[in-house]
Design a protein that fits this description.
Elements (H helix, E strand, L loop, with lengths): L7 E2 L6 E2 L12 H12 L10 H8 L3 H16 L5 E5 L5 H9 L4 E6 L2 H12 L9 E5 L10 E6 L10 H13 L1 E13 L7 E7 L2 E11 L4 E9 L5 E11 L3 H10 L4 E9 L5 E7 L9 E8 L1
Length: 305
């Protein structure tokens, strides 16, 4: 399979634009990540010298796990490994980069509205892959506007699909995602919930060289809208405040699955995270129809075409 040309639909003119995926900001900056890691290992990161996208990748994303999870779940359903991935709301395209680095015949398409973030991903996640970076196409556009050759897997992770706040908006996205899948196609979504998801609070987690803070600033129980931020604290006492902001609707598992089935998917499966011997999240996700009453939980929804 060859990388597709990255067709981008202009919803106004109805034309197809074919972007040069490696034309903008493709000078390798692998040293940036190395420099950040060295500063972190020496506890020398500060709000002034740290890079927010690198901090996010270190504290939020686990793409190695997700690539393996996608392969395992897809093979369980269809009996073979997938090769083509579309990463919606891709940000720095870290998942896409990990996907094409995994196997020589893998290809990926990443779609995001934020051009500067895509450029950061081109420099720091794709260019260091050398010629394998050309197996990833990045498109700056609304995920609902982008059409192209069907893919086997579409992933919408890090809860970004919660930016669609009405049923009509979410169903339009799911319908578009379903139409963009191959006959043996799968959509991967992640979500969180539980009573603590509705409580304004700040959760801190220590990482090497910095502290990650998840700030649930506000929740409206009438609309289920939630406003969150990410901050980073550093050993010198400085803080990168509001490094990332989110204005979402907290969609529930049953209503999401109902909308998915109404959007053309034939089957949905919830993969629930188990607990270890101490009752803490285990990081192991298994298909389930009954979750435990955890104060906070994370789950994956798999929708199959």
């Amino acid at each position: 399979m060859k990388p597709w040309p990255g067709n981008r639909c202009d919803p106004v003119r109805g034309k197809l634009e074919v972007p040069d995926i490696m034309s903008k900001a493709t000078v390798p900056e692998a040293d940036l990540k190395l420099r950040q890691a060295k500063l972190a290992s020496r506890s020398e990161l500060t709000a002034r010298n740290s890079e927010r996208h690198w901090l996010y990748e270190q504290s939020v994303q686990n793409v190695e796990f997700e690539v393996g999870f996608i392969e395992r779940v897809y093979r369980k359903e269809f009996g073979h490994r997938p090769h083509s991935l579309r990463e919606d709301f891709c940000g720095t395209a870290l998942l896409s980069a990990a996907w094409v680095a995994r196997r020589r015949d893998n290809i990926a398409l990443g779609v995001d509205l934020d051009g500067p973030t895509l450029d950061w991903g081109r420099r720091n996640n794709l260019a260091p892959l050398g010629e394998r970076g050309a197996a990833v196409t990045l498109i700056e556009d609304d995920v609902r506007n982008v059409a192209g050759p069907p893919v086997e897997v579409t992933a919408a992770t890090n809860f970004s699909w919660w930016g669609f706040k009405t049923r009509a908006e979410l169903q339009a996205y799911f319908q578009s995602a379903c139409a963009g899948l191959a006959d043996e196609g799968m959509l991967l979504l992640d979500c969180f919930g539980g009573p603590e998801a509705q409580v304004p609070q700040i959760e801190e987690r220590e990482l090497e060289g910095f502290t990650y803070l998840w700030d649930q600033d506000d929740f409206n129980p009438i609309t289920n809208e939630i406003r969150c931020m990410i901050h980073f604290d550093f050993p010198d006492g400085s803080r990168m405040k509001n490094a990332f902001r989110y204005d979402w609707r907290l969609w529930t598992l049953p209503e999401t699955c109902e909308i998915l089935r109404a959007s053309g998917f034939r089957k949905t499966v919830v993969y629930w995270e188990g607990t270890d011997g101490d009752g803490d999240p285990s990081g192991v996700f298994r298909p389930s129809t009954k979750g435990d009453l955890a104060p906070a939980w994370v789950a994956y929804i798999l929708a199959f075409r």
